[in-house]
From TrEMBL, chains A, B:
Keyword Heme listed: no
Ranges for region Disordered: 160-179
GO biological process: response to stress
One MF annotation (Gene Ontology) recorded for this entry: DNA binding
Protein name per UniProt: MarR family transcriptional regulator
SMART domains named in the record: HTH_MARR (SM00347)
Source species of the chain: Pseudohoeflea suaedae
InterPro entries linked to this entry: HTH_MarR-typ, MarR/SlyA-like, Tscrpt_reg_MarR-type_CS, WH-like_DNA-bd_sf, WH_DNA-bd_sf
Ranges where the HTH marR-type domain occurs: 26-158
Amino acid sequence: MSNPGATNPPVTEPLCAPIGEGNEIDFEIIELLFFAYRDFISDPDAILETYGFGRAHHRVVHFVNREPGLTVAALLDTLKITKQSLARVLKQLVEGGYIHQVAGPEDRRQRKLYPTRKGRDLALALARPQSRRIAEAFTALDTADRQSVVRFLKGMIDHETPGTVDSGKTEGAGGEAAI
Amino acid sequence: MSNPGATNPPVTEPLCAPIGEGNEIDFEIIELLFFAYRDFISDPDAILETYGFGRAHHRVVHFVNREPGLTVAALLDTLKITKQSLARVLKQLVEGGYIHQVAGPEDRRQRKLYPTRKGRDLALALARPQSRRIAEAFTALDTADRQSVVRFLKGMIDHETPGTVDSGKTEGAGGEAAI
DNA sequence: CAAAATATGTCAACATAACTGACATATTCG
DNA sequence: CGAATATGTCAGTTATGTTGACATATTTTG
């Protein structure tokens, strides 16, 4: 079927030239983001493994520490996962004494989430190597350069026009999020 | 003097203060990276779904396009997964006509991987929205600022000490292709 | 040349973390 | 009271990774 020296290459004929030569695609940044992020999460991942935890636990512990008292619904909205997905890791974190659940003072249906001292220590232990990595990457940059990085990262984030997202349902599509 | 009110708070008592106030941790960049990367991969993920593909397929298609003719072993080394994991997605991509396998010209045990036209089109379709997002985030930055972003991202990547891997060949130019 | 090493493929079982759907319970609201 | 809401839970599915064992073809080596 394949003929070396065929005159009319079909879509299944192999291409030998690398992609992105003379293309409009910014492959440099695409790949830098891939590798930077992969190495960025490798540090906490190594720590999590010693606890028997995974990325999902990191995300939950992180955001509960960043916003103590947030509700399950708010956490689901931030993580953009389903409550069934959250339930598993949250249960482990609560039973392990990392997170405390308190019935809402006004709406007692709510479960407000607070970190414990143990949970805070874990969040800090996970963030520390990440922050160190950032600091190292920043050593070559002055204050103005660092602000450029912040502006770039903010520009990479979806600017959700408030009003387009109908917050009627709690079970939404999930992505492959990661912290 | 450690605690007003309660006498001796155990590690399981809830904390109300947000983490990272007056801490040495750079939570701003940590979270910006999280959200930026999540949204960054959401674009290709939506496209992949229409093909019945996932992130693993994107990675394989990307690398094969960036370095046509790379071997299975080289791909495994880049992706840092097992051959059993790769086999599943690679089989789908080969059977779908996105990637072509050719026995190595010198070492016929090797299977050199090449993108087909179809595979190249897919790789471009996946990279295009990512590149567009980068371009948008760059609009607020001049050339010097963009170089700062590149320097930052490179600084975030693990600098593998080239001593563990002995590669005495003149090929491994710094900044090799990869997603 | 025969044996060992290498590159790849494959079968099977398992783990994690996401998903959907259905249903239970407690609480608040109209 | 009945409907809506916030949360929890059970059951099954999918995608992607893992380990271990073994097969096959090819190259290298003793």
